[in-house]
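Quick log. Single chain, no ligands specified.
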Amino acid sequence: MNDPLFWLALSLFLVSVSLTAVLVAAFPAFLELARVARSAEKLLDTLQQELPPTLQAIRLTGEEISELSNDVDSSVKTASKTVQSIDRSVTSAKNQAQGVKKQTRGLVAGLKVAWQTWRNNKPVN
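-> predicted structure:
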């Protein structure tokens, strides 16, 4: 049992048995890694084919949204100007109506005075 060659052979045998056990245990994992690598390759191929058109569509959608936003902004500005114009027209009509009301009051007061004057100043026969 003191023979170094025996211990060397025994050590090499145990190392080879251990390596064999590790390889046998790792073989299913290697097969699974190969399957995952093929699946990842298919996924990357699909992404390479599908991603550029999708990104282009997203870019075009963004541009269309920007154009629509600009259109809505200009429409809101136009509507705001229209509302301001209508507001000015309503204010002007209100002022004119107040002026007509004052003139009508003056006319009615004048007619009353004229009527009273006419009734009081009848010529006596």
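Residues 93 and 99 are 10 Å apart (CA to CA).
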